[in-house]
Amino acid sequence: MRVVPSVLESVTVHAEGALCTRALVLSPENGRLPGQVRVDGLPLALRTGSLRARVVEGPSGLLVRDLKPTFDVRLPPESELPAEQHSLEAAEATLSAVHSRLERVRAEIQALRDLTPTWPAQRKGHPPREAPLTAMLSLTGFVDAELAQLQAQELDLARQHRDATNELELRRRRVQELSSARSVDRARLFRAALLTLSGPIAADRDARLLLEYAVAGARWVPTYDLRLPRTLEEGTLRMRAAVIQRTGEDWTGVRLSVSTASLERRAEVPELKSLRIGRSQPPPARSGWREPAPGLEELFAGYDTLHGALPQAGLLKQAPMAPPYEEEPLPEADEDGYEEQEVSKEMSTFGGAPGGAPSVSRPPPPPAPMAAPKSSGAFLGGVRPSVPRRSETGAIPEQAPSRSAPRGGGGMERMRSKKRAVMAESVEVAPIKDLLGSDDDDAGAVDELSGAASLEPADSLFDYDSLTLASAASAEQRGRLRPRPALVSQAMLSFTSVNVRVEVVRLEAQAFTVAESIHTVAPPTWAVPPRESARHFDARFDAEAVADVPSDGAWHTVPMLTVPLELKAEYVCVPSVEPRVFRTVRMDNASPHPLLAGPVDVTLGDEFLMTSPLPTLGPGETQRLGLGVEEALQVARNTRFEEATGGMFGNSTVLTHHVTVDVANHLSRPANIVISERVGAVPESQKDLKVEEAEVVPPWQKPTPLPGEAAVEGERVWRVSVPAGEKRSMKATWVVKLPASKMLNGGNRRT
């Protein structure tokens, strides 16, 4: 098998996860292309069900017939290990050596401190002995001198131990900051793909193939860069993508794309079935499915003969009223010399494995039939099940043992015959209707003779990579494919080596855990996940140049594309709330791409201005982006209020409000200013309350809110253009009339 190198060409980052595409080139040897190739070096966080391969260049008719995932274990040489790993191992060795020396010096200090003079025991009837002062002074001097030397060594080793501990912590942090693609393990585990080709293998030119796979551990959020001149017109908006990935491989020089679609969502083209007028016809057979070969059950005749009287292949179930098996009392010795001890000995090994493996004396109950899916009649074989013939009593007939058997064997044959009879009585044939379920729709279908054969297999039965052949010991499913449990692959590894199984499972689980750790990293300020801001559409954005994104679990900014926008500068002021004027830019999205919500970095001229949140802007929509306060524009608002009585009999109150707004432009260019005011709004329940606009110079109008902006009841706006270095004044008068017996909530003065 040829191992072919591959190059990562393109990556599409979805809302969660990424779709990677690798390219490999097959060169013919001796005029022939290899029939099977292997692609190594795939990330461990690869989703095996997402592997796809196709031929894009090569001889006509060359196809990828089969594609299987597997593992690849590499033992890299010392030269391929990162320098950070060598530094970490050296720091660990240094710390271990210093720690050993420090512990040895501390043990010597403790031993010296235990060297103290002891007084001899006083003997009864004898005077006390004279103390050996010279020896005691010599011991004390020796201990002091040695302690001083050892304590100096202890201080020096403690300092070295502290420095070695800090160095080890630093090296560990450096290793943690490495890209996950640069593994520091001595044995590296990768994924691999086995490709089987079919077609014209004989060729005189190269063939180019593409291998696609999905990986976990990748995210992206949109960001923007808005560059405006001082006039706030004809700016440039560039879309960027903040990408974070920890997939286990570095993306170097790849064509990067980002998408708002979910990688887990199924997007298959629906199969439209034709409607025909005429006689009913059976549906055409689905491609890839074949009925079981005839004579399937005869293949296991030798197995049944070797392993005892297994029930013939058929669909069996436990009888609901079958009595439990109870062992009969052992018979007395017969005329052939059959003894009780001999029966007990053979009973202990009855039903055991070859070689005398121990087993229980009670026969196991027959296995329950495996429930079949509703629409998977072909899973049952597509034919009517073969049923073993039974006697009138319902038991499967067995040939009775001969009484003339040799001594020591006849008793065993009789016991086996009794056990077989009991086991046969505890099972009966299950109808197909019971296996398919008790639904009314299924019950009516299986009553027909060919009902089971007309059922359509489930979609999961066409995924041959997840199917397995049942064991020959299973009389119900042997010789047929069935879905394999999720943990079977791990159990199969245990048959080879327990250590390999544990390491593979651990490393694969660790790779997925590391990949999912990116969800704990906080996104940039004002960033919004694309699935939350994409509304009801999905979009894909392609980068204009190749990009590099290392697998280090940190955010990396990648420039994507330049968005054509129509910009219009506006200055907004609400003098009744805030007398300052704010800069805004009206953005009209004239591109076919939607602009998702995210932070936008605004640069005014050559100076960075601020970072603002940008709402979602669909194609053809308009939004207003705030850019802060403009100090060169000044606004002054003055109000005057008059209250008088009106009506023929003075039974009403007239409230007159006068508002004057002055605007001064100190910029070197004209400024278009939007000034907002608000008049009283009359609720429908107050029929005796009226608000009339008396005099407004220049005229104002009711504003139309932009998408995403809330409408304000009673709002009025002036749109004026103030030349550079000039002033403008706006005046407005409105009157509120209400009965004299009433008063406005909060006071009659409303300005």
From TrEMBL:
Residues 361-370 have a biased composition (Pro residues). The keyword Coiled coil applies. Keywords: Coiled coil. Residues 88-115 form a coiled coil. Residues 322-422 are annotated as: Disordered. It comes from the Bacteria. Residues 210-739 form the DUF4139 domain. The keyword Ligase does not apply. Residues 325-341 have a biased composition (Acidic residues). Residues 11-112 form the DUF4140 domain. PANTHER family: DUF4139 DOMAIN-CONTAINING PROTEIN. This is DUF4139 domain-containing protein. The lineage of its organism: Bacteria, Pseudomonadati, Myxococcota, Myxococcia, Myxococcales.
